[in-house]
Amino acid sequence: MSRSVLWCVSFDGAPLSGVVVESLKLARAFRQRGHRVLLDIGYDIKQDKGRFFAPYTDEAVGLPDWAELARIDGLDEIPWYTTGFVRSTLDAVRRGGALDSSFDAVVEALTRRIVATWRRHGVTAVLVENGTLPENIAYTQALYRAVERYGPELGPPRPFVLWRDHDLMWTSEPSTGKYGRPPYPLTPRPRNSPYIRYLALHDEARRRTLEWHPELRDLRVLHNTFDFSRTATGIGFRERHGIPAGAALIARCTRLIPQKRADRDIDLLARLRDRVPGRDVYLFLAGDPAEHPPTVTALRSQARRLGVADRVVFGGRLAPRDLASSTGGFSVADLLAEADLMSFLTSYDYESYGNPIGEAIASGVPYLTTRYALYDTVYGRKGFQAPVLEISADDDAPLTGEFVDDVVELLTNPRLHSRVAAHNRSRGERYFARSRADEVVGELLGEPTAPAAPVAADLPPVEPLAPGVRMTVVLPVRDEAANLPAVMESLAGQTLGRSRFDVLLVDNNSRDDTVALARRLAARYEGLRLNVIAEAEQGVSCARRAGMDLAARRAQERDGDDAAERFYLVSADADCRVAPDWLAELLTAMDGEKAAIGVCDYYYDAAHFAGRPLLWDAIDRTLRCRRVAWSRFGGFPDGKGFAVDRRAYQRVGGIELSYQVENGRFVSHLSDDWDFGILVRATGDDIVYVPTSRVEINPRRVDHAIDEVVAGRAYGSGGIITMRDIRPDGPGGRDLSEAEAVQAWEFSIKDFMPKNMILAALLTPSLLDDEGVIDLLSTDLARRMATRIPQITAETRLRDYVPIHSYKTPCFRLYFEFAEELFARLRARVGPDIGYPPALPDCLQEVRDTGDEERFREFVRHYCEDRESGAAHDYFGNGGVF
Q: Where does the Glycosyltransferase 2-like domain start and stop, copy by copy (predicted)?
């Protein structure tokens, strides 16, 4: 039996470019299926590299030993097929002019030689990279003809060609007009053929291609893929290149050509001088110095001028990260194994993908980059985290102080470094895993494939709300397979009959088998109804809103607007367990009180904190304060478990998402549950605290929050709220030191008191006339707070406190003015261990020491309203620890 043969042809015309490396990654999947792999680098296609018809010399260096270099036979013998012909054809493409009279003859001659070469080698599959890029449209036309002539020789019509475009006219240096402007009248469009399967590099390339050619039937997206299992030790790498063992190392894994803008890295290196205590910073520039000598000369001169020449290493060409070299030597994997950061400060519109970023992600190395034209399409919108240097369309990208500070933080903060690396690697495995390329190749070769994991469009429709169901539990999930068994068991064990509630699971882009596992678990419990929907926008806020909105619509469709019986939407978190009476107690309280929202009691299992007495003491004090305050003020909803009346939910417009900028991109804010409670209470509706409806909080949340507290911050600093995954990088378990215990308690109580005691009164001043509130605060304190609230409200000039976090300034002001008395009341009601207020900020203490209370109030106002400094935000921590 003859061996299968893959022919790879690249329009890039350069060995070991990103395009060629990606060709070989796909080719490896063929190789693993027994194919012989022949690689045509494309010298005889692209005239501007100066290698037209040039023989191969050392191109095999760095290639895997299974990739054989090959060429189409006899192209140099075709009359008229010269670099001049290719250049003039490209000029006609750009101008929209007439093609050379020899064009058809050249295409036919190319076609015959391509087919003859494929026959001679017994080619059974073809991989075309960048064939639609109009470098050489004659060669593109010839490939199409060759495919149609050669395809029937392989048997019944079937795809044997993968045609994948890394660059297209609109992504390859568009500002230069190198390939002309739309509508590209001379560029060959992709063809619907039984022999060809087209692949786009990303969603934007697919969209633009289909705009150009709407009739194209088979165009799929295949991202560049990376081997996340590949590891390297980098042994001997630093010694070989003269890099000290303790030095910080920034890697640059690109070609040394002007468009890659390595000059920006040398500028950055100079800016980092003396910014990394105890460590010199080195820059390694990989790339062939002979490819464009003027660039290397300019870079060396720049390094000398800036005084960093001794720390810039020109390391030469390295073997690809994901492909084993047949000649040994170091690879990009070895460089990244030794690097602290990978840099990609490339030009604005030269890049269509940015492979070095993907290589860094797969290697567990944080990266920094410019926001080049397609950065957000390929990486940014997928949630990767990195310092991103803003860049203009004319390629202006000054190194800002903020960007340099972000780089310094990654080089000096080990916790941040490891967290960013782990986050990026986790997301990268979802989008760029090598298995995706393997699936594409297997499908082309007719291999049976396993059913794809369901996506939003493939999920079964949600069933109508069954008669008798009074509550829908909305459960947002993302990669929660480890927690789901306990959660589903606690839901199935509710004393409220299973005919009275159902579960709506909202899959927020899980990469594990969360959804399938949830279905299997639900099937174990007779009568437990489970529906699943998907929410593509990342963030628990987005997922919770999608579930709540759907649950409300289902209830409205079943009951109409005038139903006598109330229906409740219930929020749950996938990592928290609920008590058996959780739903039953909520239902009873909500029906009895006619409240808009029912708030659960949250607790931790003390057994999880055995041997951690200082930590448990801080937790216990916080929970005791919460119970007392909520029993008087009613509390606020928390995503871990609350119920809302369906009509009240719809009356306020549901959960309103807020967005903030994090690492240069918009992310949904995590305070949707709290802000929703503010919105409901501000309408005058009641919130009832249901202490008998209990939710156990997963202790992993504490270990995460404590990490932040020990670092001297809670949820961000400088007025910026930092969104974080609550899952810690490693196991917790240690107790706090005495100093850390004090810090944790003070963060917790400073967050608790403004939000849980003052905010309710701010939104509903009539609460200060409530007997239970007066009993807690005293008649005098309640009266004085009732007098002060409208004064502060008038001074803020805000109409209401519903807009996100507008409540903070007045709550912070009231805290500073009444803290001593509020703590005294908590000591009396909760216990003497509540203690006294944490120390004032020094600036306020200086004013208080003067004894001038009016001046103190005035400076409290300035302190709390100074949004630019974020000082008040940092003092209060912007988030409870427990």
A: 472-628
